[in-house]
Amino acid sequence: MKQMSSIDIFAIIKELKGIIGYRVENLYRDSSDRFFLLNLKGKGEYRNPYLLIEPGVRIHITEFKHNVPNRPEEKIIALKAHLKGNFVKDIKQIDFDRLVEIELAGKQTYKVIVELFGNKPNFVVVGDGNKVVFASWYRKMRHRDLLPGKEFVLPPSRGKPIFSMDSDEIAKILGSADNADEEVVRVLARGTGGGGVLMEEILARAVIPKKRLAKTITKDDITNICKVINEIKKEVENLEPSVSLDPHEQLVSFQPIPYRSNPHQLKHFDSFSGALDFYYSNVRPVISPGLNRYQRKKEQYEKVYQAQLETLNRHKNRQEIYKRIGDAIYLNISDIDELLSTILNARKKNVSWEEILEKLEQAKERGILSVRLLEKINPKRGTINIDLDFDVVEVDFRKNASEIANDYYEKAKKARRKIIPAEQAILETKSKINSLSEDIDEQEGADAIILKRRKRNWFEKFHWAFSPNGFLIIGGKDISTNDEIAKRRMRNDDLFFHADVQGAPYTIISRETSDNELMEEDLQLAARIAASFSSAWKAGYSAIDVYYVNSESVGFSAPSGEYLPKGGIMVRGKRNYIRGVELELAIGYEESEFNIKIIYGSPDQLSTVSPIIVLIRPGSESKGKIAKQIQKIFLKKAVTWDQKAKLKAIDLNEIVQAIPHNSKIIDVQYQGI
To answer: Which of 112, 34, 24, 114 is nearest to 69 (CA)?
Structure first.
């Protein structure tokens, strides 16, 4: 697996300077225990970014969704207590090495040290007095100890960074007698901080074969090397990140700038984080907890299935052998009865077992047929063994042959009665195994789908919809957003809507968001949004009137002598009414390559976008319960693995936000499914 090199880290740190000032909102460890996720919040170029830190491999902003446990481990809970709420004060690379330090400031200052090298890399949190408060693992080492409460010591330096070296220093490394007979690329990679990829690029640009021996490097070669180093340093100031693809478009590597030593075609990205996120999300698929769970269950049921098959075969074999014994006894019933009666009568006359055995042996020698069946006498058990050719069975000599045969027939019946339930149990287990196989196939397909965290648009802080002719409609959610809509978002020529009831959102049609002509269906949708999210829904109304006016008719000051409450408005002039607006809302979804967005409005408006439309009206079920039902309805009709994965990944709160208040589902419409 490709790890980030020193120059990769140098480049990403330049980008990550953008998170300075952001607050640590939350911290997670992914379900596979591979990496940490820091959810950050702040004002800047990133909107609520997630910083992904995988010790030994990578560090970057991620847009993809990652599985995290519902209940974190105790050590992660303890780590949250230290870091949550702190601000990113600084982030830097240590000595051009594969070490990153993130400084967090709050009530206490912490440093997060991330090792991006080695077979057992670490994630260390250092607190006051440079004491270790957390580490992925603790250990005593030759050069340092990494233990809780002990002073933190950095790993040994890998050498002076090549970007900081002058020609004399480079010449000294290459001219060392110990390095004379080694390839120049190996000498530079080992003797400087930078890594093999960077050294190959430097040599390629300096037109020096990487396999040349160090002792053959001339003064002019070293001058060229220094010139190239300065050239690369300047290029890294203006990143041109990309991912390399082979002829089959399989991912090969990533790079922060174009490498002349790289023969592959390139896929370019706007940011290095974007390139790293794309590369690692494609080449390192994570086995989800769901897949592990399905596989474990399937293994358990397969063990049960094998045990059930063995039990069924045992019942069938017993039925067959017991019936066969019964048949054989009836076939030899006269001889067996004669043998049994002979033994029983002798015992009644107190003939000793020794004498009985002697007489039976004599009878065998004379060729008496009944005695040929005798295999053995068990005096202490009161039984004899008789040989039926295919099997030797032990029987009670106090019973007659008919009774013994019937005993075996009864055993055969009992075995047969167990066969049907055993077969039924096998069918049920097999069905569960098949179902789990389908779940595994589905989960494997879903795990292969790359899901991105959906970027929210500015208008999604309001109730919103796009009308059939492309006009943006936004409505307030509370006093604060009502005030923002009326005073900051409303422009000249916009239309202002309000349900004719106390307690309703300020709703506007933004005329500047579409060049089309405003039509009746646009007005109707705005009225539906204004009515649905008003107090009328909570009150259980079936319909309500909505009025609208031009934005110029909305004022923010009361007439002389009157009082206007906070967030209040004055509507002057004639009001245009849309009567009897039905309190009914359609909820659907819009699918993109990486995620799904919940949309809502009228059925006609959604029918061209959403494959499924759920209609709701005022009712008695809570918003949360209705939201879960809607998600299940969407999932039930999902036709592809990626669609199911996206629907499962929907933030349930997105659906909750689309539901005005307690509701009921009245209809489900499928568009071409």
So the answer is: 34
User: Count of CB atoms within 10 A of residue 376's CB?
Assistant: 12
d(CA 443, CA 430) in angstroms, rounded, equals: 20
Determine the Cα–Cα distance for residues 592 and 343; give it in Å rounded to an integer.
90
Choose among 642, 615, 618, 643: nearest CA to 629: 615
Answer whether 336's CB lies under 8 Å from 404's CB.
Answer: yes
Choose which CATH entry (2.30.310.10, 2.40.50.1070, 3.20.20.80, 3.40.50.300) describes domain 6-146: 2.30.310.10
Q: Which two three-digit tokens encode residue 109? A: 């200052």
With cut-offs at 50, 70 and 90, classify the pLDDT of residue 414.
very high
283-290 contacts at long range (C-beta below 8 A, 24 or more positions apart): 283/1, 283/2, 283/251, 284/1, 285/447, 285/448, 286/30, 286/31, 286/32, 286/34, 286/66, 286/67, 286/447, 287/32, 287/447, 288/31, 288/67, 288/443, 288/446, 288/447, 289/31, 289/67, 289/69, 290/443
43-57, 62-76, 515-529, 579-593: range with lowest mean pLDDT = 62-76
CB 280 within 8 A of CB 251: no
How far apart (Å, rounded) are the C-alpha atoms in residues 490 and 507? 9
CA 401 to chain centre: 69
Cβ(222)–Cβ(171) under 8 Å?
A: yes
Fold of 162-238: Helicase, Ruva Protein; domain 3 (1.10.8)
Q: What is the pTM of this model?
A: 0.63
Question: In the prediction, which pLDDT does 446 show?
Answer: 59
**Helices then strands (H, E): number in the chain?**
18, 29
DSSP labels, 475-494: E-SSHHHHHHIIIII--TT-
Backbone dihedral region for residue 382 (phi beyond 0: left; psi -120 to 50: alpha; all else: beta)? left
Q: For residue 268, which amino acid is it?
A: H
**Which tens digit of pLDDT belongs to each residue from 641-658?**
778 878 887 888 899 999
Query: Hey, what are 187's tokens?
Result: 């000498």
E strand residue ranges, 292-403? 374-378, 383-387, 392-396
User: What are 118-171's pLDDT values in tens digits?
Assistant: 888 999 999 999 999 999 988 888 778 888 999 998 887 777 788 888 888 888
Does residue 550 sit in helix, strand or coil?
Answer: strand
Beta strand extents in 472-611 (DSSP E only): 472-475, 495-499, 507-510, 543-550, 554-555, 570-571, 576-582, 585-591, 596-601
- Structure tokens of 339? 């043998």
Other Cβ atoms within 10 Å of 268 Cβ, number = 11
- Residues 6 or more apart whose CB falls under 8 angstroms from that of 567 comprise 479, 480, 482, 483, 486
d(CA 460, CA 590): 14
Could you give the CA distance from residue 650 to residue 451 in angstroms, rounded to a whole number? 10
Phi first, then psi, for residue 254 (nearest 5°) are -135, 160
Q: What are phi and psi of 157, to 5 degrees?
A: -70, 145
**CA quadruple 554, 558, 562, 565: dihedral positive or negative?**
positive
The pair of three-digit structure tokens given for residue 326, joined into one six-digit string:
């019964």
Indicate the Cα dihedral angle 582, 588, 590, 593, nearest 10°.
Answer: 170
User: How many other β-carbons are positioned within 10 Å of the β-carbon of residue 74?
Assistant: 8
Calpha distance 193→114 (Å, rounded): 17
Domain boundary assignment for the chain: 6-146, 162-238, 294-411, 453-583, 586-673
Contact 531, 580 (CB under 8 A): no
Q: What does the pLDDT read at residue 242?
A: 95
DSSP 470: S
**Token couple for 517:** 């002509």
